[in-house]
Design brief:
Layout lengths: L4 H4 L12 H14 L1 H10 L6 E6 L5 H8 L3 E7 L3 H14 L4 E4 L12 E6 L3 H6 L5 H12 E12 L2 H9 L3 E7 L6 E10 L5 E9 L5 E8 L4 H9 L3 E7 L12 E8 L7
Parallel strand pairs: 1-2, 1-4, 2-3, 4-5
Antiparallel strand pairs: 5-11, 6-7, 7-8, 8-9, 10-11
């Protein structure tokens, strides 16, 4: 049986062979800078300079965890990333920033267990939607995993994409949409050309072609994402032992998210002992 595309689509992302030493350092510095908005957001959640235990699902290069550690906010941090290339990048990144409190794990999230629970579990860059689109029942499975590994009164932070504008455009264009974007100069790729469509389960199929900056070589990347409206995610989280659910349209400043992206913060219900 073939693996779902979402399990393998990041296999060569941030492959170290694509970076010179200088390009690697510049790239890491830029990624850390881009986490300023996440840092500001989490600082507001813990205004008393409390050091936190945090787990990031789909942690990629672990830039967020390193940023939090640099700002003395970490007691213990775990990043879980299924992509081998991104894990190896994160490990080199770890040496670059001299991290001592971040542990990177290169496994499928459902094969990871912990003895101690976390104050925060976070999934940015629409990772939640990548996992739940893999198979029917994965939404329930992922939320159960989160519930099992989150402290009572701990926080779940998710960055999601409703895809409302994309879906409207798809309906106006025979369910096919073509978009191109240009990357920052520190990125080894210059352009990405995206083809979007909708599958039978109403998930977004996103096929990307990357054009390298210097050689003009091409690289291809495909994944499938499950859309979540704000109302839908609130309804789902309420059914899964979460309360005080809040929606934010930005992390720190207006327009620091893509269009239709938003952040949801939910607090795990405290268990009530019946005597």
């Amino acid at each position: 049986m073939n693996k779902h595309v979402n399990l393998t689509s990041y296999d060569d992302v941030e492959k170290l062979d694509n970076f010179t030493d200088l390009e690697f350092m510049n790239y890491c510095d830029e990624k850390l800078f881009l986490c300023e908005k996440h840092l500001a957001f989490i600082k507001k959640m813990f205004p008393k300079n409390e050091k936190i235990d945090i787990c990031e699902i789909g942690s990629g290069n672990s830039k967020l965890l390193y940023k939090l550690e640099q700002n003395n906010m970490i007691n213990n941090a775990i990043g879980i990333e299924i992509s081998r290339s991104r894990y190896l990048f994160a490990e080199k990144f770890k040496k670059y920033v001299k991290s001592e409190k971040v542990t990177n794990i290169n496994k499928n999230i459902f094969n990871v267990t912990f003895e101690k629970k976390f104050q925060i579990i976070v999934g940015v860059d629409i990772v939640f939607q990548l996992i739940t689109a893999i198979q029917n029942g994965y939404e329930e499975k992922l939320l159960s995993w989160i519930d099992n590994n989150l402290d009572e009164n701990g926080y779940l932070i998710l960055e999601l994409w409703s895809f409302e504008s994309i879906i409207k455009q798809l309906h106006m264009n025979d369910n096919v949409l073509h978009i191109w974007s240009e990357f920052a100069v520190s990125d080894p790729f210059k352009y990405v050309l995206s083809d979007l469509s909708i599958d039978k389960d109403k998930n977004i199929i996103w096929n990307k072609k990357f054009i390298k900056r210097d050689s003009h070589g091409e690289s291809f990347f495909n994944n499938i994402l499950k859309p979540y409206s704000k109302d839908l995610i609130v309804e789902i989280l309420k059914k899964h032992n979460f309360k005080d659910i809040k929606i934010y349209d930005s992390w720190d400043k207006e327009d620091d998210c893509e269009k239709d992206e938003y952040i949801v913060v939910a607090k795990k219900q405290e268990l009530v002992n019946e005597s």
